[in-house]
Design a protein that fits this description.
Layout: E1 2-4, H1 12-27, E2 33-40, E3 43-49, H2 61-67, H3 74-81, E4 97-101, H4 104-114, E5 118-124, E6 129-135, E7 139-146, E8 149-154, E9 161-169, E10 172-175, E11 181-183, E12 189-191, E13 198-201, E14 204-212, H5 213-221, H6 241-257, H7 269-289, H8 302-314, H9 322-329, H10 333-344, H11 348-365, H12 373-379, H13 385-396, H14 400-408
Antiparallel strand pairs: 1-3, 2-3, 4-6, 5-8, 6-7, 7-14, 8-13, 9-12, 9-14, 10-11, 10-13
Helix pairs in contact: 1-2, 1-13, 5-7, 6-7, 8-9
Pfam families: AraC_binding_2 (PF14525), HTH_18 (PF12833)
Keywords: DNA-binding, Transcription, Transcription regulation
Protein name: AraC family transcriptional regulator
Length: about 400
């Protein structure tokens, strides 16, 4: 069996990173036996022998999380190359199936409980609905598979949730105001609280991410002093780098939540860090599509920057982001970011992650034989394991797995 890193890892450092990531991944798995890791031009090739033919590739999440993300979503990459059934894509949240029906009335009643009160009318085809759902408190994830074309209308204004539509296939036409817009694999649409929704939903598969309304509004108010009603301007998100990050991270996150051995499925800090990052990415995407009238970015004093650093140091163990830091020292997010870059040459988030790298080293140095790089990294909010390994090596002159092996006497 061979795993190939995509050819867009075009420099030696990136290739070395991929090789180290693959080595760490294989070392943490019990079934595969590492045979060789070689670099061929811009491609890293990992060859191994797996004595158990039923061994799933997703048990080596460290390798896939960084390398395969460059080819597209983790789901499509894994399905096309490592699934036992190459033609069948992995189903997000497959462990959380809560509903399946071919009856439109039964499905409408179910959707009224889990989504919004609605009226559904079949326009074309045979009806079918399957719904996977995980409620994580302030954020919820649903993977919806819909099999025909329907007229779908919410009965009354939408409830106090912001909902993100990420299509794997198919399309949905949203009529929430004067101009309809479409969500599909290329366009990401957001519903805001208070919208009046009429829609045409065709045969589709999509991920629906739902955020608590107050949490989103609080995050946006830290970015803008005033902002007009969301339903007046929110719709299709612009295709920015932040949106690409949000889509990639969300695709990885729902698959990781389906893995019972993941730190995200256990009580602990990793899950809090993951939700905080998701909310921050979502708020940044909304901010990029917000109306022009936003807060004036003002510098803050050196004393306030130092206050921010002290607060960060005292709260590193918590799932904090730039929103919590700005709130703690009572300044706007844009002002905090601008002043941090001027004074420290980096963003507040980069400062937080830099401090956490030091904690990661302490944890790796004191770890026992059962510890793993994955668990330690995720407990500190590092979810791109390849980038974590690269930054760690740049700062400490060795990879995380080397530190761990030495401390555990491996």
């Amino acid at each position: 069996m061979a795993l190939c890193v995509p050819a867009d890892f075009a420099d030696d450092a990136a290739c070395d990173e991929a090789i180290e990531l693959a080595r760490t991944a294989v070392a943490e798995c019990s079934a595969p036996v590492l045979q060789a890791i070689t670099a061929r031009g811009a491609t890293a090739v990992v060859d191994w022998v797996c004595p158990d033919p039923s061994f799933p590739f997703r048990a080596t999440p460290l390798f896939s999380r960084r390398c395969w993300r460059r080819q597209g979503t983790r789901a499509s990459a894994l399905a096309s190359t490592h699934n036992k059934h190459p033609g069948r894509a992995l189903e997000p949240l497959s462990s959380y199936r809560i509903f399946s029906s071919m009856d439109v009335d039964e499905s409408s009643q179910f959707a009224s409980r889990i989504w919004e009160r609605n009226r559904t009318t079949i326009l074309h085809g045979d009806y079918g609905l399957r719904w996977n759902h995980l409620d994580a408190g302030k954020v919820a994830f649903s993977y919806v598979q819909h099999e025909c074309t329907v007229d779908l209308r919410a009965q009354g204004p939408l409830s106090d949730r912001f909902r993100l539509f990420l299509h794997q296939s198919g399309a949905m036409e949203h009529r929430t105001g004067k101009h309809p817009f479409v969500s599909d694999p290329h366009n990401v649409v957001v519903h805001s609280p208070g919208m009046e929704l009429k829609s045409i939903l065709g045969p589709s598969k999509f991920l629906l991410v739902s955020f608590d309304g107050k949490c989103v509004r609080d995050a946006m108010e830290q970015r803008f002093h005033t902002i007009s009603r969301y339903q007046d301007w929110l719709g299709v998100l612009p295709p920015t780098a932040d949106l690409r990050s949000l889509r990639s991270y969300t695709a990885w996150l729902v698959l990781e939540l389906d893995n019972p051995n993941s730190p995200l499925c256990m009580a602990g800090p990793a899950r809090g860090h993951a939700k905080r990052l998701l909310l921050t990415l979502f708020a940044e995407c909304l901010a990029e599509s917000a109306p022009e009238a936003s807060e004036a970015v003002e510098d803050i004093s050196l004393a306030q920057v130092r206050r921010a650093e002290e607060w960060i140091t005292a709260n590193l163990g918590e799932p904090i982001g730039v929103e919590e830091v700005a709130s703690a020292i009572e300044v706007g997010i844009r002002s905090l970011e601008k002043s941090f870059k001027r004074v420290r040459g980096c963003t507040p988030q980069a400062f937080i992650m830099g401090r956490r790298l030091g904690i990661a080293r302490q944890m790796l140095q004191g770890a026992g034989e059962t510890a793993s790089v994955t668990t330690i990294a995720m407990s500190l909010g590092f979810f791109e394991l390849g980038r974590f390994s690269q930054r760690y090596r740049q700062l400490f002159g060795e990879t995380p797995s080397m530190t761990l092996a030495r401390s555990a006497g491996r």
